[in-house]
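Renewal narrative, Specific Aim 1. Our central claim is that a sequence can be written position by position from structural information alone. The example that follows is taken directly from our test logs and has not been curated for this report. It begins with the structure tokens describing the chain, in the order in which they were read.
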């Protein structure tokens, strides 16, 4: 399990364990918080082609799918 604090998400780098369409390396480009300081929106961008995907930030804690940093 990857451990990351929501406030450290912005600009963090991630590697997808099982790449799809050669998209392996990603950067978190958008993190929006609600009035209770909970993440309401998280967007990652593929480095290879700049495609953006919105996801639940907690998916990044799954170490079977994501690794912290670029590998």
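The sequence written for that structure reads:
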């Amino acid at each position: 399990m990857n451990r990351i604090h929501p406030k450290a998400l912005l600009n963090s780098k991630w590697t997808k364990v099982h790449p799809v369409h050669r998209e392996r390396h990603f950067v978190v480009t958008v993190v929006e918080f609600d009035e209770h300081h909970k993440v309401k929106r998280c967007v990652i961008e593929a480095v290879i082609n700049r495609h953006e995907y919105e996801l639940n930030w907690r998916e990044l804690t799954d170490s079977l799918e994501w690794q912290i940093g670029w590998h």
